[in-house]
UniProtKB/TrEMBL annotation:
Domain CHAD: from-to ranges: 41-334
UniProt cross-references to Pfam families, sorted A to Z: CHAD (PF05235)
Membrane-traversing stretches: none
Lineage summary: Bacteria, Pseudomonadati, Pseudomonadota, Betaproteobacteria, Burkholderiales
Protein name per UniProt: CHAD domain-containing protein
SMART domains tied to this protein: CHAD
Amino acid sequence: MLRDMTRATTAAIAASGEISPAAAPADAEAIALPDAANMRRMSAAHLLVTLAALPLRQWPSAPLHPESDARARAFDPEAIHQLRIATRRLRALIDVFSPWLKPRWYRRIKAELCWLGHTMGPARDADVLATTTLPALRTEHPDIDWPAIDAHVAKLRSDARTLAAEALASERQQALHALLLEAFGIGADGHANRQAAKALRRPSRTPGKRPRALAKHARNVLRARYIALFPDCRQLAMLDTEQLHALRVKVKRARYSAEALTPWLRKAIRTPYQDTLHTAQTLLGQLNDAVVAQRALEDMEIPATQRDTLNGRLDTIIVNATSRAAHVLCHLPDAHTLERGMRKD
């Protein structure tokens, strides 16, 4: 029933025309995982480097001449999106498997991934604003001074793309990519060799190298990510936009952790749990796009009445997205159900 509900909710979101491309396609962030049974038999170190190799294969190539305005304009926004996905997944992995990483490497990788993710953010936000949020508002309110808005957004988008292109082609990004390859022992063929991974701790300094130790750790992580969702997910109507953004981050962490630890969730609980988290992330992403649009409107030179009109419509989108997210998150499994759905080994 929950599975049908979340799928129906996702379909309703897509039909509404209010969803952002950053979160809409269910397959846009799909990732091919090894067989679950094989993953359970792997050591933590082996599983970590195997999973890390997957997003690193999606790492986009850098533009050759970031200083060129023409190159910046031609910069593919999808490369930004793929890079943000890769950085989020890698951050989730090192977070989940931190006991098996050398602390110095963990801190360095986390800091650099945070830098790159934050650098890519404005470009992605500007693309969503220009291609999804504002076009929907234009259809409903054609009498607004759209030429002034278009000019402002075009400048905003160009500046954000230029910064993203410069970051992607920077020595710091190239050094980060090389660091990740070295950290996880990724070879030229894109496959991982844990014997060559520099970031892994010695087995004597980890919780254990046997799969049973990893299973225990997996259950602890899944519980912690689940508990972190409460009580916010039960009282969304009381949260402001900053708190809702923080909840979205928690939802993403829970989703990516559950994805990385798929072998330790039984299918009966895994599918509805991940579907619910995905749908909630989509709705909260829609809400965040509306908040980004409101902030952008503050700097636009348009009449105050027009700004108020657009802000009013964006407020409606925020309220609707909050209501839908609350409905979805209320159908998360209870703690007992989740516990029974975890594998013990």
